[in-house]
Amino acid sequence: MKSIKATLTRTRTFKPLVQLDGDLFNGVELTPAQLRWIAQTLIHIAELSDAHLCTGKHYRDATQIYTEVSA
Prior knowledge:
Helix content is 28%, strand content 28%. The chain is α+β, with helices and mostly antiparallel strands.
């Protein structure tokens, strides 16, 4: 099962930054369906990152794990 761990964080200048981790980033072979899932998931993560507040006294990183569901 493939998974992506995405941590929404920020740069030193308070701009959105995403840290990605997971087995998908270490010499893996993927089918076209798996590549589409990755693309859709990365677009979703980018949208979340754009909406994630990067300033303020109560700022916190946000971490989410996305796991591929086999059909």
